[in-house]
UniProtKB/TrEMBL annotation:
InterPro entries: OPRT, Orotate_PRibTrfase_bac, PRTase-like, PRTase_dom. This is Orotate phosphoribosyltransferase. 5-phospho-alpha-D-ribose 1-diphosphate binds at residues 89, 112-120. GO terms for biological process: 'de novo' UMP biosynthetic process; pyrimidine nucleobase biosynthetic process. It holds the Pfam family Pribosyltran. The lineage of its organism: Bacteria, Bacteria division WOR-3. It is an enzyme of class 2 (transferase). Its cofactor is Mg(2+). GO terms for molecular function: magnesium ion binding; orotate phosphoribosyltransferase activity. It comes from candidate division WOR-3 bacterium JGI_Cruoil_03_44_89. It comes from the Bacteria. Its EC number is 2.4.2.10. NCBIfam families: pyrE_Therm. Pathway: Pyrimidine metabolism; UMP biosynthesis via de novo pathway; UMP from orotate: step 1/2.
Length: 186
């Protein structure tokens, strides 16, 4: 069995420091999911582990949000031999554009790379419900949520690490004077 945490540290998926998150909160740990996408030899066994959790379940389609989630959705759908659909950002949430059709009552597995607050997954679930399809379960590679979000359907994560986030005003790393970095693509 692979030591996921050790591998994540070695290839730079887990970064330690002082980070400004999208939410505006500060954290001592950042997950750079693109280090995993960069190394398919490490990523593929994790995608397969995620997919194997849902083997034999009555899933019709696998859905993921852009950007990283669409890669996970494609890979999990490939392993499970299901359809793959991608939810893109639109005003007020997410939607399945580009002609992805959803049938009423089809069971949809929602996947994503990193779960922090669960906002992207919630947007995908809302989009599925708008088409009267059925959000069946959620599968993520990394669950780094402080408090595991309740999606109203089962959640499975390949790797979970509870990470505490801080408001800037009571961030212990700010108090120690550790330089703040803004990771990610922006
Ligand atoms: Zn701070």
């Amino acid at each position: 069995m692979i030591d996921i945490e050790k591998m994540f540290k070695e290839i730079g998926v887990i970064k330690e420091g002082h980070f400004l998150l999208h939410s505006g909160l500060h954290s001592g740990i950042y997950f750079e999911k693109f280090r995993l996408i960069e190394h398919p030899e490490y990523a593929i066994p994790l995608f397969e582990l995620l997919a194997s959790q849902f083997e034999g379940e009555p899933i019709d389609t696998v859905a993921g949000p852009t950007t990283g989630g669409s890669i996970i959705a494609f890979e999990v759908a490939r392993v499970l031999r299901k359809r793959c659909i991608i939810a893109e950002k639109v005003e007020g949430g997410r939607d399945f554009l580009r002609g992805f059709g959803l049938k009423p009552d089809e069971n949809i597995l929602v996947v994503d790379d990193v779960l922090t607050t669960g906002a992207s997954v919630k947007d995908v679930i809302s989009a599925i419900k708008r088409y009267n399809a059925n959000p069946y379960a959620v599968g993520v590679l990394i669950d780094r949520s402080n408090e595991i979000p309740d999606f109203g359907i089962p959640l499975y994560s390949v790797y979970r690490k509870r990470v505490e986030n801080f408001n800037p005003e009571d961030c212990p790393l700010c108090k120690l004077g550790v330089p703040l970095t803004k990771p990610g693509g922006v």
